[in-house]
Amino acid sequence: MDVLSQIAVDHNHLMNIFIWFSLVIAVFASRNSPNVRWVACSILIARTADILLYGWALTTEGWFYLIMSVQDAALILLIVKRHAVASAIARLRLGTLSLFAKDCLSNFKMTSNELMYVLILSVSVVVNMVALIEREIRQFTEFNPMFIYNAYEPIKLVLTLLSVLAILSLTIDAVRGFYSQDKVEDSQRQ
Length: 190
Known about the structure:
Elements: H1 3-29, H2 34-58, H3 63-80, H4 82-91, H5 96-106, H6 112-140, H7 147-175, H8 181-189
Helix pairs in contact: 1-2, 1-7, 2-3, 3-6, 4-5, 6-7
Transmembrane segments: 12-29, 36-57, 115-134, 154-179
Keywords: Membrane, Transmembrane, Transmembrane helix
């Protein structure tokens, strides 16, 4: 592995760690909004898996794109199917975790920031799949497309930065009380 590709891996790993710590802060900052905490905790779990699996996933060659896509798709499901997942966790009677899930059920509201985050994750899955298809074309034919391969790092960086902005916006709104239980109940009455 050359030095330049090693720098990119280290940069990505450092960014993931920074985002992970930011998400921990977001979880605590959004204590008045169970929905935002659910989203922040879901992303925190996904980022933890990403930090733990990223180095290994890079060694899997083409499987890397599939691993990253499955991770993004699982996070999309955790956000979009939050009500079903929270219901299942609440029924398991797992102490604090079940109480947290039950709290998310009573104040369920999908926000525009969450929808934007899901859209960003969906674009990430598409980019990963196109990169995988491009890799397979290079590997099994004489055609050598490098469009996504050459643009993969910048595309993923932009998607990561956009996702951080969406979560930051969501957290700021939660800290301001926009998604607190009282505000949700007031908006549902109107």
